[in-house]
Amino acid sequence: MSRKPTLAVVGATGAVGTVMLDILTNRPDLSAAYGEIRLVASPRSAGKVLSVRGEDVVVQALAPEVFDGVDIAMFDVPDEVSAEWAPIAASRGVVVVDNSGAFRMDPDVPLVVPECNAEQVRNRPKGIIANPNCTTLSMMAVMGALHREYGLRELVVASYQAASGAGAAGITRLYDELQAVAGDRSIGTVAGDVRKAVPDLADSPFPAPLALNVVPWAGSLKEDGWSSEELKVRNESRKILGIPDLKVSATCVRVPVVTTHSLAIHATFEREVTVEGAREVLEAAPTVVVLDDPASRVFPTPADVVGTDPTYVGRIRQALDFPNTLELFVCGDNLRKGAALNTAEIAALVAAEFN
């Protein structure tokens, strides 16, 4: 006999957790399957009352007993918290959908984007399913659709990542910097130094001023000068698309945008590809919106995309001098599809198992 599973949202008071609650409230297709929804956060947030699906719910402190009776849990907490608590929840019979980086490359944990590899949801020997990094996720609906049709072989990606990718601290920092430089028209010229105008960089999640600037760095330093964000794009794309030898090179850049990541993509395929054919494939993809008419100044930008659920793609071109290669520009709200929405979509696939 079918029943409605109980869902826990762990990290409900954070930036992504707040978006999760909005999705559960305003997307009945992703929330109607659940009976009870529990909200869980750190002890300092316990006792807060938040609204979900039109009901006031008291936030509970993270502890083993909060998972008693829970069937599915969506985690949006730091890596170290997920690494400790996701196995605890799984040991109590909970299917954990984790938005952190703690388990993404674990061979016993599927890394899922429903548009690409929904079948992997049932392959969860540890009871944990991982949600990809927001930068990788921003292009997966597009690349998954094209890969199925043409066979993806190589990816060269430049990301333009929003401040919110660094969490609430990133958003606050950008607004503080914008306030500090507003009205000073010398900033960015020979006479003006943005580093002197912005608050102390020691307090910033970014290694350089972000206001009126572009910072070619996101993540932490890894071997040979690569950043952790760039390696995530490479490794996670391979795992999601099921192409272990996919050639990938990424340069991750932080830009003064509050929310929505963008990517310039150079994609080479095994089979012959045309702009017209690719556009038809992408227009048929249910979660992709094609905005591609440069003559009329129609192409996706973060300002158009923020707060929406689809992935947007434009500037679709045949690469000059590179056969079977397309150039594309993709935008996706990094707090929605890049984090909360994909997590909720994975959880919905698990919830369907209870019917």
From TrEMBL:
EC number: 1.2.1.11
Lineage per the UniProt record: Bacteria, Bacillati, Actinomycetota, Actinomycetes, Streptosporangiales
Key word NAD present: no
Keyword Oxidoreductase assigned: yes
Organism: Thermobispora bispora (strain ATCC 19993 / DSM 43833 / CBS 139.67 / JCM 10125 / KCTC 9307 / NBRC 14880 / R51)
Quaternary structure, from the entry: Homodimer.
Listed Gene3D superfamilies: Dihydrodipicolinate Reductase, domain 2, NAD(P)-binding Rossmann-like Domain
Name of the molecule in the record: Aspartate-semialdehyde dehydrogenase
Catalytic residues in the record: C134 (acyl-thioester intermediate), H261 (proton acceptor)
InterPro entries assigned: Asp_semialdehyde_DH, Asp_semialdehyde_DH_beta, NAD(P)-bd_dom_sf, Semialdehyde_DH_NAD-bd, Semialdhyde_DH_dimer_dom
Function statement: Catalyzes the NADPH-dependent formation of L-aspartate-semialdehyde (L-ASA) by the reductive dephosphorylation of L-aspartyl-4-phosphate.
Residues that, per the record, bind phosphate: R104
